[in-house]
Each structure stands twice: as C-alpha cells, then as structure tokens.
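PT: before anyone asks, these are the final sequences, not the draft ones from last week. 829 residues across everything. Please model them as a single complex and drop the result in this thread when it's through.
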Amino acid sequence: MRLWSFNGGLPSLAEHKNESVNLPIEIAPVPKCLVYPLGQHIGNAAKPLVQVGDNVLRGQKIASAQGMVSAPIHAGSSGTVISIADHLIPHPSGFSAPSITIETDGVDNEIDYTPCTDFRQLSASQLVDIVREAGIVGLGGAAFPTAIKLDTQGKPVTIDTVILNGAECEPYISCDDRLLKERANRVIEGVEILLHMLSAKRAILAVEDNIPETFTSIQNAITNNQNPAINAVQIPTIYPTGGEKQLIQTLTGKEVPSGKIPAEIGIVSINVGTVYAIQQAVIEGKPLTSRIITVTGEGVNKPHNLEARIGTPISALINVCRGYTKQADRLIMGGPMMGFALPSDNIPIVKATNCILVASKHEVVTEKQAMPCIRCGLCASACPASLLPQQLYWFSRSDQLDKAVKLNLFDCIECGCCDVVCPSHIPLVQHFRYAKSALKVQNHEKHQSNVARERFEAREERIAREKAERAERSRKKKAALKSKPAKEEIDAAVNRSKTKKNSITNED
Amino acid sequence: MLWVLIALVPGIITMIWQFGYGVLANIIICVSTALMAEASMLRLRGKAIAPALSDLSAVVTAILLALALPTLAPWWIPFIGAFIAIVIAKHLYGGLGYNPFNPAMIAFAILMVSFPKSMTVWVLPHSMLPTGISLSDIFTIVLDQQPKQTLIDAITAATPLDEMKTQLGLNQTVEEIRSSSIFGSLSGQGWQWVSIAYLLGGMVLMFKKIISWHIPVGLLTGLFIISFAFYLLEPSVTPSPLFHLLSGGAMLGAFFIATDPVTAATTPKGRFIYGVLIGLLTYIIRTWGGYPEGIAFAVILINMAVPLIDYYTPPRAYGHK
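LR: through. Structure below.
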C-alpha cells in the first residue's frame, strides 16, 4: 500500500517502550474505592442517576449523558455510593470536580449483560445506540464520545475508509501494542462491526514499524477473519504519526480541512483500544468499565500494562506495580510529550487515561533556562501542521493574538515537536496553549459585552421612545387646551370630579 | 554557532595565507572587543552573562565583521566596528533575537561611511607583495604608528571590485581591466581562493543542516541571474557572472552573513526570496551604486523588508487550501 508523509515530526525520538511492553497485561484487582468524575469526556458532564447510599452492580449505569455531546458512566464493580461531591480530577490545573465515589464490596457482582450472537442483524442506528449507551469515548486520549463519530445516518457524508489507529507514537506508552499482541482477534471483530455500521469500503489498521511481532499477530487475526476489506499496514515510526490528522495524511495522502472532521473527506479514524471497547459492548453487551493502561517509568518497580477499572485511584495502580522506586520524581498522566504532571496520586484514572508515567529526574526534560528566540526555524521544519511556531511565539508573547490566529494558531495540535527541537529551550506549546485560552476568554468577553451593549442600546432606545411619547402627549394636551375655551374645560373637570365623588359615596 | 565557526576555518586560513597576519589581528581585536562589549552590556541590562556569552553569537558576529574588514587596518577600525556591532546594532535593540539588522553589517556600513580611507586600504595577496616586508611593518600599520606612505603604497592596492568599477568608469573594457596583475583567472588574485574556501565551508553547513539552503542558493542565484543578463547584453563592459560570484563578500555573505537567522526571513519561501533580493541588490550597488561592494548594504536594506516578506510567505498549513 502506498504511504504518504507529513511535514516535519521527530523520527529519532527515544521510544522507551521496552520498559513496559514485555510483560503480559495484568488484571488489576478491584480497589477499595472507585471515583468517577462526571465530566471525563469532551462535552457536557454526565448527570448522576444514583444517590449516596445506593447499592450498585458492576456495569450499572450511574450517570447518564446530558445533551448530544456527552457520555454515560457505569460502575466498575459492585458496592455502595458513598459520596457525590468534588474530588481531585486528572487535569493540568489540579482542579476538583463533581465525582461519584463508590466503596466496593469485594464481591464484584455484575448486572446481566445481553450478548449479541450476530451483529449483522442489527441496524447501524441500533449499533450506534449500543455504543452510546456503553459510554464509549475515544480511548486514545481525546475522550470524544464515539457514538457521535459513528452516527453518520442522516448526515451528508459517506464513509469510505475506516482507519484504526494503532500507531502509538508517544514514548513510553504500550497499551495499544499489548492489546493488539494479546487480543487482536477481538479487535478485528470490532473492525468488522465498524465496517458494517458505517458501510465503509475498507478498513486500514495502522501500527508503527517498530513492533513487527505485534504486526504479525494482527495479520494472523486478519487471516483468520478472512475479510478482504480489512488491511494492516506498518507505517514509519515518526512522532506524531499517531496523531489523527498525521495518520490520515500518512495513509491516504488527504488532509482533513482545517476546522472540519475526518468524515468530511470520507474517513472515520478510531483508536484500537476504542474498537476493542466497541467489540465488548456489541458482542458481550458490556459497557465500558475498564481499560488497558501503561504504568511505566523509572519511578515504579514493575512497569507493565494493567487492565484496570476506570475510576481506580492511581495509588492503587502503583501498588500493583510494586510501589514507587527511589528515583520517582514526577507523576505524569499520558506520555512525556503531551501528558501533564499530576499533583497527587489520589486521583482516579478516567476513560482517556492511557498511561501513568512515574518519571525519574532524568526521564523528563527539566525546564532549562529559556533563551531568546533566534528565528532559526527548526520548529517550523519540525511542525507536523506546517505552522510557523517562531512567528506564533512572537505574536503570542506580544499579545498580538489576532495575528497568531491569522497564522493558524488553532491548527496547532500541541504535539510538542517544536519544544523538543528548539535550541533556545523555549516552551513553545505552553505559549500556544496560553494564547488559545486567552482568545477563548476574549471571545467570551466580547460576547458578554455585545450582549450588554445590546441591552444598553435597547434601554436607551426605550427611554428615548418614552420621552418622545410623553412629549407628544403633552404637546397634544397643550394643543387641545388651546383649541378648547378654558371655561368649558374647567367645568368639565369639575363635573368629572363631582361624578367621581358621587360614585365613591354611592359605593360606600 | 560552533559549527558556523568551524565552517569558517577554511576561509580564515585561506585569508591569512593570501593576505597575511593582518586578518588575524582583525579577528583578535574584534573578538576580544565584542566579548567585553557583550559582557558589559549584559551586566548593564541585568542579564546573566555566562549563558549569553557561551552561545558564541557575539564571537560569530565579531569574526564575520573581522573577515569583512580590510585585511590590514589600524586597530581602532576593528575595535570601533565590534563595539558598534554589539552595543548599538545588537543590545540597544534588545539583544540576541531582537535586532532587526545584521550587527556585523551595520558595523561595516558605519565604518565604511565614517572612515572611507582606512576602509579601502587592502593589502595585496602574498604572491604580489614586494619582498622585504616584515611582520613588524604589519604591526606599525595595525598599531597606527604613522607608517611611511611608501610602505602603504607598496603593499596595498584597490580591491578587484574597486578596480573594476573605477576602470569601467574610465571607459576601459573588462578584458583590458582584467589584464592587470591584481586579477586572477576566476576573479581577483587571492580573492578567488578565499571565496572558494567560504563556499566549501558553507556547503558543510548546508549539508549538516545548520543552515537551510534557501538563503545561500537564493542569493547566489539572484546575483548570477542579474549579472548573467547584463553580461549577455554588454559582455565587453560587464564582468562575468563568475567574477561577481567569486569577488568581494559574495560567498561569505551568501553562506555566513545573510544566513543570520535573527535578521533573515523565517519562512522557507521567504528565505529564498530574501536571498534573491540580496543578490539582485548587491549587483545593483556594485554596478550603479557609489560603493564597489554591495553585500553589506544589500543585507541591511533587505533586513528591513523581512517582516513584509514573512507576512506574504507563510507555508500552507495542514488542512488549508
């Protein structure tokens, strides 16, 4: 199959996969408590369906989706709801947010699942409903509700190609690799479901060319499956080839138009972990309550992959990996390139958590003193979105955000390639994130002030109108007074008051 | 920056071999002045001195200026030049990364308009030097101890570009002019080898991807195209494109001066255009301007156009038509 390339990227980024990839996936035990932040996906936070004191079973829906872009949440084990309150969530800013906490009972009772013997009997919209109800979101890290991606009914798009993203380009992370090594058959069955529900012509499962054994196991699964529409491809290991846009470009040569979604060019791209979750939901009837997660780094004694229940506190996972080592220095959720540091290990993993990196001092780039930008342009040659980070930096720093927008600031995927190549050690992505959020605040304020201005103008108009009306009335009155003889008018007024008085006395 | 210095070594060695130790004196005075000026400015501005000095940017500026100066100059020429480059052209604009103009070229231009006499005293290449010139003679000139005019006349001459321009103004043909002994088979005696050495060093930088190809290729292409066009029109009174490429500061300018990232255009397309414009302007200044060499002024003038060039040449971003 012909492959294309994207601009820039980092071909020689240290992979650090060996630390975690060689041991089989271990099923992590049920922790004492499971914590579910209600907003763990893109879109509206879920709405709790349980109350404190309720008993729940594994697989039971404990919060439902609110609005179109949202996803329900299911309990990961049986137990009792002990609180619905703010809890530390995995977020760069160390926020707390509304979360449901379940104290597990250790029995791990499940609800009755309704398995499906032949998914081909189900219509596309029925399958979309299953995916939506199973609470499946993008497990590659984006956490976008998958059902929305798959619901192409009634939309003016036809999906030609389904891309299965197994290109785990971020260093240290190996959960998709392990999944494909051990459970390729189920992933391929998931691919068949996707082909069926999207009526797509072909599916391409892409993995990086640094994992040949995994590739063989995928190919075996495809051979067993005998579906000619499914193909596996090895793509060059260049960070960030697993980025959705970069992968689409690598495999098809097409670019997703700026601000649009891949469906516009007939493509749906899904992470292989998500496909596995879809297979589990459709075939076994199981909602998303667990995922495979890499716990790695020099800071843990036994780095490997775990199948953990969503909601498990990180501290419990660290225990499964035999605790911290002396070198443990920083706790990172996600990989070293796009992940973020956590303030504590009393934070649960969420659906999007693919990696917990306990890094030693030398594993993370300690912030070096940033020197001035010398406009060398290395960042621009490394940028997979073909942006000019040096110019964006200049404009972001000087608060000329409109110019940064003109240079396509919002097409930045925050992959961090520019940070890595910058000889002046400038944390470029941080500046871009700042600029993006500043622009969001600006737009919000602009909206607010527009609303206020409209209100003010409406009020001014109303006051002016009323004033004019009053003036008009008094003018008319005066005119009437002038036209009528004063005597008559006075008599009439006297009469009026008399009748009024009479009527009041009558009423008494 | 270290690689830029390494790539300059062949050029420096060739220059010393051809034009003597005056070049070395220039380098030493420029570098030491530049380092002192840089350290004092950093201190005055309350910045950390060690990291800024160790990035070698001041050294590169100083050496580029030293190589552009006359090969035998009184000490105060490189001293004032390096001072202007670091203090005025760099730090008064905000220091590394904020200067709009190439510091070495600003210094060169100021020296050129302020001290035209001292800036045109170019020593002859070693093959043409009269015998009996000792190191101490060079020192008297460098230390500015009023050397005998006969000594200066004996060992200096106009540069080939200068000579070409003057003689063309006297209605000589290129052929007649080039029969003079200061011209070699390619361009000027000595100059041609220096240019080739810079070309080699520049190629190393290009292949090591320290500099992108856009600026040097653009500059040399621009210079070649315009000189070739006029050469075709009037070959008898127009020096050949090869003469232009291998004379004066064309090679040094293309690979080492115009490629200063801070003051150059920063988009790939923009860099090529930036190079081409410098090449064209260099020819225009050499041919119709008041000075025999135009690289410095061309670089400064096109530095001014950089924001405009960058504005009109952003690359097509992913997902945009």
